[in-house]
Amino acid sequence: MPHPDPVTAMTDPAESAGLPPLFQPEYLTFLLGGDVYALPIEGIREVVGSLPITDVPGMPPFLRGVMNVRGAVIPVLDLRARLGYETAPLTRRSCVLVHELRRDSGDVLVGVLVDAVQAVLSADECDVAAEVAEAGSVRAPLPPEYVERALMLGGVRTLLLDRALLLSVDDLKQRMLQ
């Protein structure tokens, strides 16, 4: 009697018990100008509330300044400016998403300023099947290259942003030189 192929014979124990699969992508949803966006949760080290952001003279509008997070001085990108919205004053709901970027020269921390954080949500099969190709009802003149895809997350149409391009250090350097 032949032995079953170990690869095809493997089943997820959670699945056989009627539980959700072990890995489902998770997304942090947030607001910008009333529109809902998301980024993959991996790479986001923490969400920081109202810490002071120090202005850096001569920087482009999308670089809001720098802030001190646990002794590390990190640049803070204003996602509103980066995506074509008008900049807005900080509010009590404003948050900075601290991302850890892996580089050959070492890890780099970058902050991303958003209007408000909503939730961490998993995309279930129903949500993934409801993908939408275009931006549709977004109010900002959003550059399409920053949108990875549109999903239904928690019953809300949400644009999943391309984290790699949005936080590309090389792209940021090039835009700073313009």
From TrEMBL:
Q: What PROSITE patterns does its record include?
A: CHEW (PS50851)
SUPFAM superfamilies with a match to the protein in the record: CheW-like (SSF50341)
**Which InterPro entries has this protein been placed in?**
CheW (IPR039315), CheW-like_dom_sf (IPR036061), CheW-lke_dom (IPR002545)
Gene3D superfamilies xref list: CheA-289, Domain 4 (2.40.50.180), SH3 Domains (2.30.30.40)
Q: Which domain of life is it from?
A: Bacteria
Q: Where is the CheW-like domain?
A: 24-172
* Full protein name: Chemotaxis protein CheW
What is the source species? Yanghanlia caeni
What does the record give as the organism's lineage? Bacteria, Pseudomonadati, Pseudomonadota, Betaproteobacteria, Burkholderiales
